[in-house]
Amino acid sequence: MAKSKFEYVRLFEADDRCLPNTWIVVRVDGKGFHKFSTEHEYEKPNDIKALSLMNRAATSVMEEFKDVCLAYGQSDEYSFVFRKETQAYSRRSAKLSTNVCSLFTSAFVYYWNEYFPTGKPRYPPVFDGRTVLYPSNQNIRDYLSWRQADCHINNLYNTTFWALILKGGLTPAEAENKLKGTLSGDKNEILFSQFGVNYNTEPEMLRKGTVLVRRKVPVALPNGGIREKSQIVQEYVDIIGDEFWNTNSHLLTVT
Amino acid sequence: MAKSKFEYVRLFEADDRCLPNTWIVVRVDGKGFHKFSTEHEYEKPNDIKALSLMNRAATSVMEEFKDVCLAYGQSDEYSFVFRKETQAYSRRSAKLSTNVCSLFTSAFVYYWNEYFPTGKPRYPPVFDGRTVLYPSNQNIRDYLSWRQADCHINNLYNTTFWALILKGGLTPAEAENKLKGTLSGDKNEILFSQFGVNYNTEPEMLRKGTVLVRRKVPVALPNGGIREKSQIVQEYVDIIGDEFWNTNSHLLTVT
Amino acid sequence: MAKSKFEYVRLFEADDRCLPNTWIVVRVDGKGFHKFSTEHEYEKPNDIKALSLMNRAATSVMEEFKDVCLAYGQSDEYSFVFRKETQAYSRRSAKLSTNVCSLFTSAFVYYWNEYFPTGKPRYPPVFDGRTVLYPSNQNIRDYLSWRQADCHINNLYNTTFWALILKGGLTPAEAENKLKGTLSGDKNEILFSQFGVNYNTEPEMLRKGTVLVRRKVPVALPNGGIREKSQIVQEYVDIIGDEFWNTNSHLLTVT
Amino acid sequence: MAKSKFEYVRLFEADDRCLPNTWIVVRVDGKGFHKFSTEHEYEKPNDIKALSLMNRAATSVMEEFKDVCLAYGQSDEYSFVFRKETQAYSRRSAKLSTNVCSLFTSAFVYYWNEYFPTGKPRYPPVFDGRTVLYPSNQNIRDYLSWRQADCHINNLYNTTFWALILKGGLTPAEAENKLKGTLSGDKNEILFSQFGVNYNTEPEMLRKGTVLVRRKVPVALPNGGIREKSQIVQEYVDIIGDEFWNTNSHLLTVT
Q1: Reported ipTM
Q2: Whole-prediction pTM value?
Q3: Contact A20 C11 (CB under 8 A)
């Protein structure tokens, strides 16, 4: 059987290597998660179990891809930032997006039963993935700011929306109507005056999303000594302002 | 919080729409499945459970993507052929590869326990994905022939290799050595004379791989009548020669 | 001087090879030719000298690129059709478009004084170029039909427009106004009834544009004999209907 | 004539916009200029007329493309650096490379007779073009250093090679043989000891190539006053070291 006769078809594969010296972001995004969260009775406005599972899946990705220096997640999405100099998969765009996306999905299903009482979800969940390039440090910071600002806007809205429904007794349509055209300040006011909720004291994981970074953490040795070990940790902090980047300046410098 | 100030970063996403009127293949491929199959004690040379699970996962993909007219799987890989005219995800390359890859992976983990006695695998399995374009009917046929020829070559090798080990008592290194430089005929001869195995009567799923296509199948109605329903069926047939394509000419014509 | 220290920058060049087995069209288009034609007093509605110079420049491209099997030109544009199988410049998109575009431009300036009485144009003319892929024979025919239909529509409009001005004494604004919303039949009628012009007897080069193909033509030998030689010829024929393609079926078949 | 029926073919054009916030270089390169320079009797090792014509053509490109902040030329090539933020042609790669390449070629032919006594070249010269992206200031500097190092290496070689032939009476093969394996120091020594030539006093245009930048230059006004005007000037300076960039820091900053 002449294998070689057919092998010419390999030449139809395109070379999709990313521009060198450029930040590579792979973002995975839940597909149809409005329906998925409803069918799996996610708590509203936020389901800590579901967010924790997202963080678990993202940790698997960072364990595998050593060149992901930071990941940021919120709602049903997660962004993975590869170092500018990464040579993972020769920087081939589809290799990066499909491997990250597949591992994230796989881990999400795999660890489901550690977070949800049901053995497995009602049907296989799907995430799509994309690769985006950012040339400068400012660009990659602005990308992450974009996602965190999105988290803030959506979470403030959802918190107010569901307070109006769950505590205020409104229908979804009524709640939507009430919030139409309101600004951030208006929503803070509704939460505080109607429901006694100070939005700024809501859990930071919900307001900020989750940042995954590698930190040296002390590990106790059998002999009583201590050594440092690199570990992936979750932080719920502001990444829009300068403070995070000043105290983590190693993230933006070539190593 | 000025969301708009950061939104410019969306402009960095590239437009990756596939050339129109061209066959789109998305192939998913097990990552590190040599190790994965060993750790999960896949039977050698072929594990019917594992292949059946692959077929199950691929069926999920075809159920979701109506424009996949044919899928072909063998070993730890599966190829999905989208109709030339598909407008799924506006033909965006990364959307197609990541969605297919994520769903395949998700279903693989999800249905694991229907095929393997263990509740779940020892760690989350990963598949990568890629999108390749083929302009002509001959090209797409040659692509599929390439994969099926690969299946044949590998399966004949593996069948002989493992017979030498499991039945012949050779070490892997001895078996590898014995097969070095042999042609197909030589391997057939070893199987027959040494182990009484006629390779041509081995199960077709192993020798040919699995073809998934949609067929109209009769379904019994409650009133005793019968109606036709489109269903995804598995076939273990030659797709290199003309016969399959002559009897399935609808696959290559624009619908 | 360490050359090697800087040579890494070559890795930033992207691989832009065109999909194999696909028609490659390079189209060059005059940049700012409305102004250019005015400044060089092109005759209206058509300047035979200018069109002939376009044909001369296109012939230079076909002489250089043996894999261009057909070229089609009209107004200030020219399309060059490379055989599906061409390996010219390894099918690199930018190499093809810039080489064709540069040679076309170069020849246009070079041969200017063979068509225009002035030694050279008032300033250097510019053409842009683009590479477009077409997978099927129908697609490449439809591409050429698109350009020839464009030629027809524009030329009928321009012929009527300039008749109204040059023979009818209208201002451009009046002529434009009179033609607003008219169909082909209306314009034919205006030409015939007002100016005695039967559009269908206008020169075919103007109505159809110019097709360049290679033909075997007989050449007289010194000894009185005759031999055939491949030559690039201009034809002003319909390429939308089937007739041209039936009598030139070699153009669409792999050679 | 149904134009719309064919217009779908426009959808086959790919979107090739360059990554934002990234330096864009378009480099044009003489095609077959070894032959071209021989047929037009370019002086060896350098023809000042030819280099001046290259500079003239490049100046035309910079006059047209205001977003080219710097151009660098040597031998038969020229690189045009577009500002990182340029929106020229919406940053479409093929538009940029073909327009620059066409204008450069056009001007080269157009101005030929201002530099060469013959009215026009013996045949139309051709330049190819390419677009390359560089994300950081260091990358774009390294790109330019790469080209200037190339200029130095080639010019030192050619100067010595042609001295051996024109003054030393060697054949080209003998000269080539003599230079095989020599380092820069060796060539400097040959030039000095054999031909009394101090390479470092050779004209800087030959040793450094030509840098085109925009400078404010004083212009005398009719009333006796003076005003500043932006003008494209030629400089033959080192662009590998820091000095040029320190005194021209505006080139690398966003304007």
Answers
A1: 0.95
A2: 0.96
A3: yes
